[in-house]
Amino acid sequence: MEMLACIAIVAIITSLVIAALGRAKMAAHRTTCASNLRQIGTAVFGYANDHKGALPPTTHVTGSQGYEIAWIYALAPYLADVDEVRICPADPHGAERLKGGGTSYLLNNIAFDARYDPFGNLLESYNNLFRLANPSRTFWAGSISDSRTGASVLNDHTHAESWDAGWGAFIRDIEPNRHRVGDSNRTHTNGSSNYLFADGHVENIPASEMKRRFDSGENFARPPQ
């Protein structure tokens, strides 16, 4: 009986230690991810300063023919190590994305890419610092969804117009519980994720809070007017 009691105590202690290590690892990854996003934000400001306020494009508009001017490459001169900064340590596909020239972070295509009608007329544009009405509430970048496994540089932006459809569309682009202990639950709400905003600050927002906002009809990607 004493031996069984000792085994039970050791098992409990072991489980507690493993859980604590998991939380510590998650917290470390979350901190590094936030630092990466802040550096991306600083680099965007540096780029904009050299381009009359204009933001770097994504491959949503450059396509495969102009990927070398898209943001991952365009921001390289403004970052100490773009290869380190563009990969989140919590991204399960991080090594694949690094090798393929991709990234763990998606830029908000509504904020970074102007939108035109079929006749070439400008419909909306937020891709200049001087046109932002509320930078602290304008979403710039977040963690790529685990469902988007493509490692190519072309996988560098959201399809945020579709987020009007709600939570399901959002989680096809963004992993809202990137920072969690264990596997994702069915609704992707058992954790949190980091988000970069246009004033340079990064917020860690619980996935449950993001789902509440989408369920209320908000499209997080649309810059406030």
Oligomer: single chain
What best-fitting shape do the alpha-carbon axes yield? globular
Low-confidence stretches: none
| End-to-end Cα distance | 70 Å
Q: Name the helicity range.
A: 25-40%
Fraction in beta strands = 5-15%
Radius of gyration using CA atoms only = 20 Å
Order of helices and strands: HHHHHEHEEEHEEH
Average residue pLDDT: 90
Total beta-strand segments: 6
Number of contiguous helices? 8
Descriptive overview:
With 225 residues, this protein is α+β, with helices and mostly antiparallel strands. It has one domain (2-215). It has helices spanning 2-50, 59-62, 71-74, 82-85, 94-100, 109-112, 167-173, 207-215, and strands spanning 105-107, 115-116, 122-124, 139-143, 192-197, 202-206. The strands form 2 sheets. It has a 4-stranded antiparallel β-sheet.
Question: Brief description of this entry?
Answer:
With 225 residues, the protein is α+β, with helices and mostly antiparallel strands. The protein has 8 helices and 6 strands.
SSE arrangement:
Layout: H1 2-50, H2 59-62, H3 71-74, H4 82-85, H5 94-100, E1 105-107, H6 109-112, E2 115-116, E3 122-124, E4 139-143, H7 167-173, E5 192-197, E6 202-206, H8 207-215
Antiparallel strand pairs: 1-4, 2-3, 4-5, 5-6
